Each structure stands twice: as structure tokens, then as C-alpha cells.
Amino acid sequence: MEQNIRVTYLEHSAFAVYGGRTALVFDYARPDPDDPGLPAAPGLPFPGGYVTPDALDAFERVYAFASHSHGDHYSRGIFKWMGHKSVSYILGYDITDAPAGHRLSPGETRAFPELTVTARASTDLGVSFMVDWHEAGLVVFHAGDLNLWHWRDESTPREIERAEQAFYAAMGPIYGSRVDMAFFPVDPRQGAMYDAGAAHFISRIQPSLFFPTHFWGRADVAMDFARRNAERRTLVVPLTKPGETIEAARDTGGAPRARNV
Description:
Layout: E1 5-11, E2 14-19, E3 22-26, H1 53-57, E4 61-66, E5 87-92, E6 102-104, E7 109-111, E8 116-120, E9 128-133, E10 138-142, H2 157-171, E11 181-185, H3 196-205, E12 209-213, H4 219-228, E13 235-236, E14 245-250, E15 256-260
Parallel strand pairs: 3-4, 4-5, 5-6, 10-11, 11-12, 12-13
Antiparallel strand pairs: 1-2, 1-14, 2-3, 7-8, 8-9, 9-10, 14-15
């Protein structure tokens, strides 16, 4: 990270990553993204986790990502932003009702003025996103619904084996990648195995910062995952309240740090 970047938790798997005059918005799924009437503070343009017209006006370029068509990751309401200057839509290939945007399949890459986006596989619908934000010196990975999806207490041994094979196959092209910020599911519906995919991702990829997603409003799950991984090289940052924001940078020794703002 060559400059300080802010990250705001919007809701569920939706986050905004922004710095300077550019913002990246991932998997924003509120059905109506209009201004809820909450005032934006200086440097905090996403009050209550909403992407409002005022928020868009704070940036010269906005990149709106939607990893797949599930209703907890995608809303057609994001296309209300089309009237704003310089909004680019980057979508999973399964989103077929979009009036605009760049639809990507796994392995496809698109270049934009500030960044280069490569779609990677998912173990559910759509894709995950690897974003080389070269303007900020930052590589961001958003998993969408890429995860090790099995339920140890309910799945059969064969179902568990298939889930593991699918997950490791999807992870294959990601191994060896540099990742500064990762956004990845920790889904409490999986019971005791809720962190299997996330723990593997951290172990193999070692992102500088890791943000839990997809925890269905269970702040305790995100906090528990952060506690379990407190001694790792990766700093786990559990943002759990819509609108909660951190500023991320590196300290003088090169270690990642994050502070609330």
C-alpha cells in the first residue's frame, strides 16, 4: 500500500475501498441505494453503509463490482448510479439483466484507467475479483461466494470431498498471488466449519489485511475469527456495523496497520 486507503463496511459482503478520487464498491445489494438522509462527514462518504449521491460526488471515478446474481450480493438498484460521472460496472458473467457493464468469466481480464481486474472462479455462482489498483499500489481480492462450502455435521463424506476438490481447484490460479486486502466469507450457517475456507486462504495467500464477509449480521462470528487468527502474519479486521470505517496503511517497518476513523 503506497498511500493511506479507507475501507467502509456497507452490509453483508459489500465494502467500499477508496482513496484520492477513486472508489471501489463491491457487492452492494441494498434494494434501493438512494440517499437515506444521513449526512456524510468529511472523508467518510458512506454514512450508515449507504452509497448515496453525495458519496458518488466525492469521487471522480467509481468502480461498482457485483460478483454474481444472488440477491445478497447484487441489486439492479446500483444502475441508478449510471447518471453519475464515470461509474464503471464490473460484473460476474451470470448477471444477465444488467443495462450496462463489463461481464467477466473466470480468467478474463479488463484494464481500466486506474486498475486492472481479473475474474477468478467461485464455488458458487459468478466469480471472485482480483483487482490490481495500480494507481494506489494496492491489490484487492473480493471473494464473492468463493468459499469451502460444506457442513461437517450435515454433509456426507462424498459431499465434503467434492466441496474440497471444487474449492482447491478454484484457489489454484490464486496461489502465489500478492494480495494486500482480502474480503472473504466466514458464514455461521456452516457451524464449526465456518472458517475453513477463510483459514486456508490466509494460510496460503497471506494477505496483509483480511476482512471477514458474509457473516449474516453475526458480529460475534467476525470477531471470533479475528481472535482465532490474532497471531498470524495477516491482520484480520472485523468491520461489523454498516458505515464502520478504517484507514489502512503500513507502518515504518512495513507491517500492515489499520485504525478506526
